[in-house]
Amino acid sequence: MIIDPTSLAYIQNVIKTANLVKIDNIIIEPGKVRAIDTDHTVVLFHDKNVPIMPFGSIGINRINVFSSRVEIAQSVENFSVEAVMDSGTSKEPFVRALIMKGKGIKVDYRCANPQTIQAPKAVHDPAIYRIKMTKEAIDLMQKGQSAMTTDEVSFVGNSEGVSFEMSDINSDTLAYHFADSIDNVSGKDIPPTFAHKYPIKTLHSLFKANSDGHFEMTTKGMLKIVVNNLDIYVLEGNNMIEKFMNWWNKDKIAIDARFKALDAQIKTTSQEAHEARAKLKQAEEELAVFQAKETAEKEKYSSVDPWIEIKSDSIDPVRGLAIEVDYNPAFIQLLKENGFTSKDENANVQKYIACLYEDIINRMEEKIIDDNDKKPKQSDYI
Predict the structure, then answer these.
(1) Parallel, antiparallel, or unpaired: how do β-strands 152-158 and 194-199 relate?
(2) Residue 84 within a domain
(3) What would the pLDDT profile of 124-163 be if each residue is shown by its tens digit?
């Protein structure tokens, strides 16, 4: 399946945005883009105007590798990207690999199974404030990080507006007032009073790329910043891990349980497959022996050489001698040619056996008489 240029451009835009905040694993699925960084401080969650892709879902990890390989393939003429879909039993189709082609070049990229990527499935924390960020504040934030030798910045809001503050290890403080007003977007009468802490490097990268010049704050203190038409959430620093675990832990437990069940199923299936292969091999060997025997039997019965075989014999006190024989059609024909002309071939065979035994008995009697004749008589010594 060829990925159209619009879909590819959207994927590249998501990856470029994720790179800003060091997100390495991304899920793009119908109606959603989901991702979270390894430190659990930044979430990319966008569910508005996500274009319909020609495939179901795609999981992209190693995004730097992806970008560099696209760049190589895109540098030549006739560039295209083909999606190879997963052929497993998953209910939700996803892209297993991408094949990037151009004039004289072919580059493979293995994708991740979206189910193995950790990312929140929803953000249940509505925005309550909308605040304008100025270029001067962004520049001072970066300079303040160096001057105060800190990695965190606090946003403090009240009825007079919003300021950011930084403190060093000696509790020296840098404060800068950058917004005189706070827009309430919740539709509720909520006093604008807050103080939340965030990672400076993350905010600086996002604010520089934020063309709108505004950001939103949620009820739990997350900052929502729109970058490249994608919603990025920066978690409040005082309890980032706790907030993330509240989001993720429930889904993670369910996913872990599902993977453990799948792993157990795979092991069971592997053992069953091994036993099935052994049984199949045994059955194939038995079938080969049977087929060889069947072929030999067919050749034996279709032979032009007549034969008869005594399979068993026994003496019954009442019925006398009982004989079980087997023979081929050529033997019946031989009997007919030698005077055994009954229409019942069994009768012909019985007559032949009777003649055979009569001949044997006659020969035995002749041998006994002959042996007796050869014994010395009394007259021979007189």
Answers:
(1) antiparallel
(2) yes
(3) 999 999 999 999 999 999 999 999 999 999 999 999 999 9
**DSSP codes of every residue in 115-139:** GGS---S-----EEEEEE--HHHHH
Q: What 8-state DSSP symbol labels residue 317?
A: T
Compute the distance between CA of residue 210 and CA of residue 115 in angstroms, rounded to an integer: 30
The number of folded domains in the chain is 3
Tell me if 345 sits within 8 A of 329, measured CB to CB.
no
> What CATH number has the domain bearing residue 131?
3.10.150.10
| 227 falls within a domain | yes
Instruction: Determine the Cα–Cα distance for residues 129 and 112; give it in Å rounded to an integer.
Output: 37
Same domain, 103 and 157: no
**Could you tell me the residue range of the domain that residue 50 belongs to?**
5-116
pLDDT at 299: 82
94 and 173 housed in the same domain: no
Q: pLDDT (tens digit, 9 = 90+) per residue, 51-75?
A: 988 888 999 998 999 999 999 998 9
